[in-house]
Amino acid sequence: MAELLGSVANQEDKVYQYIKEAQALQIKVLPPSINKSFGKYSVEDGNIRMGLLSIKGVNHQIVKEIIKVRKERPFTNLFDFCLRLPLKVVNRNVLVLLIRAGAFDDTYANRASLLASIDQAIDQGELFGDLTRQPSLLSNKFGLVERYAEIDDFSPVRKLSDEKELLGI
Fold it and tell me: Which backbone phi and psi does 29 adopt, to 5 degrees?
């Protein structure tokens, strides 16, 4: 089923049809995740995990870089993500797409807060990212902490609308 979904990735109507079929077979289709998704749909504990390429605007180069960096260890939060990834590849626009599609929900569920904290995370990544990517230095040697903007999360309708726009379902 995961391979079938991957083969029709650009055809929203077929993706929707196959996801409904998977659900009828009691197979969950899990959202994209920066820590668990690969490029295409994949099998995870008997369920199907959406691939990062399912997100409109995310390309192979971006996915390749995310997977390469997370092989070291999973991303702990948005700030860790911005510190460890080259911001030339994963820029602000890509971060917005990933957040709106729910790919950071595993690390922090408040998407509005994540979006409001992007500039702070990018600034921290630009200041310290090159240093933390050097093998001789530990990424948290500087005592950096995550500080998200404290605002109310988006409504479920807004989240679903974003997912429909970016994932097609």
Answer: -105, 110
